[in-house]
Amino acid sequence: MVNKQAKHIKQTCKPSDNKNDVQRFDNIVIHSTNIAMYLCYMKAVFAKATHTITTHLVLPENTNTLGNLMGGQLLNWLDIASAIAAHRHCRRVVVTAAVNNVSFQHPIKLGDLVVIEAKVSRAFGSSMEVFMDIFVEHGTTGQRTKCNEAIYTFVAVDQLGNPIQVPELTPETEEEKVRFDGALRRRQLRLILAGKMRPEEATELKALFNN
Predict the structure, then answer these.
(1) pTM here?
(2) Residue 59: which domain range?
(3) Residue pLDDT, tens place only, 131-179
(4) How is residue 100 annotated by DSSP?
(5) 31/29 Cα distance (integer angstroms)
(6) Residue 165 in 3-state DSSP?
(7) Looking at the structure, do residues 62 and 106 belong to the same domain, yes or no?
């Protein structure tokens, strides 16, 4: 299919005999072929394929004067875990676009094992929302207790740093479907707060209140 598209371009857009024109024409054909190949191979990704788990031991240099994990350190760990999940979704370079939500429900103590589970919850054009659950793992029993949640947004970029299209996401489990459905409302709220969307354009948020 891609080879046919490239052949069609060459047949319908014949360049002049000027060497510079020929070179520019060849570059256009190569660029168009690369785009076509990328679009052909960009299939929907299952949420489970982006699942990422990282584990960290809380050391003295990670804590504040009360012996609790510093919020800034947790944000750094969350950024890394969510970036890996976003990369697994699109297999491209990703950059942090927004920290949508971080809830600190319970303190994390010195010596605790912190387990972060990250998974892409939905994709929008060039952006991806990543939902994370943070657990503390008991050192002796291995039992996990959920203590925090976080949501980050990433954007996929090309070699020049420009946003590029990412595959759609397919949720499977009930939890994945719930987070997928809520992602659009969270995105609209984030855009309104950032001044990038008018409140009357947020159809999903309006429907929530109308019901």
Answers:
(1) 0.76
(2) 44-171
(3) 999 999 988 888 999 999 999 999 999 999 999 999 999 999 999 999 9
(4) E
(5) 6
(6) coil
(7) yes
